[in-house]
Amino acid sequence: MFLLRDDISEIASLLQKGNIICYPTDTVWGIGCDALHEAAVDRISILKGRKPDKGYVLLVSSIEMLKRFVPKMPPRLETLLSHHQRPLTMIYAETVGLPHWVKAPDGSAAIRVATDEFCRELIEAFGNPIISTSANKSGEPFPPTFGGISSEILAAVDYVVKYRQDDKEPAEPSSIAKLDRYQELEFVRE
C-alpha cells in the first residue's frame, strides 16, 4: 500500500482492518497493529520471530485512554505520568478489557502514554491501543533510526509511515517501571 503522504485517518483505517504498520514512536521505530486484533498481533510475533507469550508494549494516546484499561490507577502514578519528561512504559499488574495475547504470562500489561504528537493523533483517531515493538527481529539490536530497519521488516508490513524517516538523531527505548508492593516505583529498565 502506498499513500502519497501520511494521512492519519487512512492509517487508522488500515489498523482497523488488521494491517501492520512500521512507524516512528516516541522512542524507537516500531512495528504496530491494533492490540485488540489477535491475528494482527500473531503476524507481528511471526515477523519478529518472537514467542507470543512474552507480552507487548501498548501505546495509548492519553491518561484518559489509559484509565479505560487501568481503572485503579494510584493518584501518585497519574501525577508522575502527567509530568514525566522521558517516555515511560509502566507495567500494570491489573488491567481490564485487554486480551491475553498482549499480556505477559503473569497477566500484567506494559502500557505507555505516547508523547509523540503523531502517535497520539494516530491512536486517538484509531480509538484503540496500538502495539509498539521495535522494528527488528527478536534478539537483534533495535534500529536507532529509520535507516537501520532491515528490508525484510519493511517488506513484511502493510504500510510504512513517511513521517520522521529522515531523522538522524539515534533513538533509545523507553524506561520501563512497575509499582512494587509498597506502591513505590521500581525500574525494570532505565
Briefly, what is this?
With 190 residues, the chain is α/β, with parallel strands linked by helices. The chain has helices at residues 8-16, 38-48, 63-69, 75-83, 117-126, 151-156; strands at residues 21-24, 29-32, 57-60, 88-92, 109-113, 130-134, 159-160, 175-179, 185-189.
Features:
single chain, 190 residues, alpha/beta, DHBP synthase, nine-stranded mixed β-sheet, 6 helices, 9 strands
Task: Write up what this structure looks like.
The chain is α/β, with parallel strands linked by helices and 190 residues long. The protein has helices at residues 8-16, 38-48, 63-69, 75-83, 117-126, 151-156, and strands at 21-24, 29-32, 57-60, 88-92, 109-113, 130-134, 159-160, 175-179, 185-189. Helix 1 crosses helix 5. The longest helix has 11 residues, at 38-48. The protein is globular, with a radius of gyration of 16 Å.
- Describe the main β-sheet briefly: 9 strands, mixed
Strand content: 15-25%
Structural class: alpha/beta
Strand element count: 9
